[in-house]
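Invent a record, attention on tokens:
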Amino acid sequence: MNRKLISTSKFISLVLRHQPERIGLQLDAQGWAEIDELLLLAGKAGKNISRALLEEVVADNDKQRFVISEDGKRIRANQGHSVDIDLALEPAAPPAVLYHGTATRFLQSIRKQGLLHGSRQHVHLSLEHATATHVGQRHGVAAILKIDAARMHADGHPFYVSQNGVWLCGHVPVSYIAFPEN
């Protein structure tokens, strides 16, 4: 992905997931924004984004962070919001094991509190170890946590899966986490 796509993706992520007010954008209750309004307000904020560039960002994002509505008029982030929205996700039975990538510097805190969603609405979990490794490396030296999702689900903890395949839950207590050996 080239620099223009990366900077545009980061900007769109910021306004759709965390700070729509930064450009005066209004999200509906499910996190949708009108594309025409997004492009207009982004331009007024000094970030000129064409419809074609926006569509390229959505199509080329390796994590499929964004989705455009079927009618092509609205856009939203698939998950990762710190603003209060309802993605209208239905509870789903997770696979037996899920993974969470983090940095080694956070392990001491996780060993005490489990995985907390922090400023986001959910803890994000991956199907693949490799995806979790990639996520963990973004934050420093990667540590991959193995989550006993089947037991957690059986014990009544709800799970959801976002449109782009990221597994979500509210909190992962320590008792369901297998920590790396080192």
In short: The CA atoms of residues 27 and 33 lie 5 Å apart. The first strand starts at residue 33 and ends at 34. The mean pLDDT is 89. Residues 3-18 form the longest helix (16 residues).
